[in-house]
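User: I want to check something. If I give you two sequences, will you return the structure for each one separately, not as a complex?

Assistant: Yes, each is folded on its own. Here is the first sequence with its structure:
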Amino acid sequence: MDGLANIGNDSAAPRLRDQLKLAVERLSGGGIDGSRLDAEVLLAHCLNLRRDQLIVADDLTKAPAVARGFATLLQRRLMREPVAYITGTQEFWSLDFTVTPDVLIPRPDTERLVEVALLQAARFPASKALRIADLCTGSGAVGVSLARELPSARICATDISPAALAIARRNAEAHHVAARVQFVAGDLFETLALRPAARFDLIVSNPPYVRHGEIVMLAPEVTRWEPRMALDGGTDGLDFYRRIALAAPDYLADQGALALEIGADMAKDVLAICAGAGWYREIEIFQDYAGCDRVILAQIGTN
């Protein structure tokens, strides 16, 4: 009998370890990488437990309703729906963020953008209440994480998608920073005030940067489920970098900086875009922990 069919069988009442084994086999047979981790996360979600608590609960049998729910979640995963969308949450910066198909799932690589932003923030006097813009905020993972780390900072989070902004606002409220985060619907800078008093000390962004023709080559979890407009960076993947790098100086205060997450093979091109803009006096490239180019930091101001 198919392993998935056994999961949720009322008469069998298998123990957790048995159902977990069947689930892993079924996911693995369906071509799911990381099948053990996915099965554990989904089972823990069904039981309203942390994943590490499954060890303690291992000898317990599951109620039939829970078993049927687990089977349903496994079927969704076999349809290549990302685990984060199934559970409705994704960890980022040691915080739990609500995610739906309206927003891109935050990746660990993007934590490097937060780290670089904090390095830049540390260059200012500790007493300064920084103004930070988070463009293409999506779930709000970057902006909310910065608000948590910088208690006096005020964040302006923008996104073209009202649905994404609703998720970002929910995450800001969950992490008790909503009073310091302003959410603005608009395409990059278009709805931001263009005046000296409204300028930012730091602008951060993880913009869409997948080359249009390469989107179809991504994993089904991405192509079938994640929002296309959060991925598509145009023919060469650089459309948003051009727009942001050229416009950012008009919105940055003196000694301000622009921090951008980049694709692993885009450092040379984005560096050239920033240099060609003519406003940036210092441009740095930061690698992620896999050694790939991940963030560009471009500073403006007098030499």
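And separately, the second sequence with its own structure:
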Amino acid sequence: MKELLTTIVLWLSTNFSLSPSYDHPRIEFVPPTEIAARRSKGLAGVWLLQPGVVVGQSAQVAEVVSVYDDSTKTIYLPDGWTSSTPADLSVLVHEMVHHLQNVAGLKFACPQEREQLAYSAQERWLGLFGHDLLHDFELDAFTLLVKTKCFY
């Protein structure tokens, strides 16, 4: 996993305005119920949802893919997660953006604002393999707008 994380850090720092950090996050594989519980407890971090989740909709446990915890510098991935597909790897890319944002001490106007770069990186990663957020995660442009803008 260390080599994979290092590769992602190099790719992110080369392609985006993120400073590289080789102080990698912890990776924990946990049941989806634990990821959902961490999300619902207002974890000081961000999460990625599986396809079909509408903002404001009550998400079922199985719909939560991953979460990053700023305070413990931990990425939580579901038991059984593999790095075998571009979509799987893109989840890790997304969460690594949040880790690099966190260790760099970047500040955002709202939690949604920090999602802009994470989704951009995820989309570009998927594009390397002829994939995209729309087809792999059913995330269209309007959904991404809502997930990445501060509306207050």
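Because they were folded independently, the notes below concern the second chain alone. The beta strands are 26-30, 45-49, 64-69, 74-78. The radius of gyration is 14 Å.
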